[in-house]
Amino acid sequence: MGELVNVPLQTAVWFGVVGVPATAANLLGFALVMLLLLEGAAYWTVKLRALSAGSGAPLPGAAVFAAARVVNLVLLGLGVPLTVLAVIDDPGTGSIPGLLFTLFAVLEHINYFHTQLMYDTPEDRRSRRRNGRRRAHLARDLERARKLGTGQPSSDETSHS
Predict the structure, then answer these.
(1) DSSP bridge partners of 135
(2) CB proximity list for 75: less than 8 A, separation 6 or greater
(3) Is residue 50 assigned to a domain?
(4) pLDDT digits (tens, 9 = 90+) for 75-91
(5) What is the pTM of this model?
(6) CA 56, 121, 133, 81: dihedral to nearest 10 degrees?
(7) Residue 69 is part of which domain span?
(8) Total structural domains within the chain
(9) Contact 32, 76 (CB under 8 A)
(10) Rounded to a whole number, what is the largest CA-CA distance in the chain?
(11) Is residue 161 part of a domain?
(12) Helix, strand or coil for residue 91?
C-alpha cells in the first residue's frame, strides 16, 4: 500500500511543494522511480493475496515480474546516461533531481529484484547485522517459480528436507 500511496504523494511533493521543474530529465528520472514503485505495489499485492489464500503455488504473475526485471535493466540502462548527460549539459534544478530520481530507481530495482536494501524493523536490522544482507523477497519468489517451472526443487524445498 505504501508504494501506491507514494506515487501521487511524491508527485505532489516534488513537483508541487518543492517545485522541481518538469523538464525532460526530471520527468524521466521520476517516471523510472514511479515505475519501480508500481512494480513493488503489484508484487506485494499478489504476494499478500497468495499468502492469504494459503496456496503453496508459485508467485502469481511471476512471468510478468521476470519480464519487468529485464525491461527495467533496459530502461535504467538508458535513463542513467540520459540524465547524466542532462546534468553535464545544464547542471541545476532542471537536471540534477532527475539524475537523483534515476539513481533512486536503480536502488529500488536492486531492492525489489536482487538484494533487500530496506530493513524497516529493529528485528530486521538485528538480523542484517548478524547474517548480512539477504536476497529480496521478489528475487526469491522468481527463483522459486523458475525452478518449479523446470521441475527442479527450489532452494527452499531442498533446505527443509
Answers:
(1) 115
(2) 32, 35
(3) yes
(4) 999 999 999 999 999 99
(5) 0.85
(6) 100
(7) 2-153
(8) 1
(9) yes
(10) 59
(11) no
(12) coil
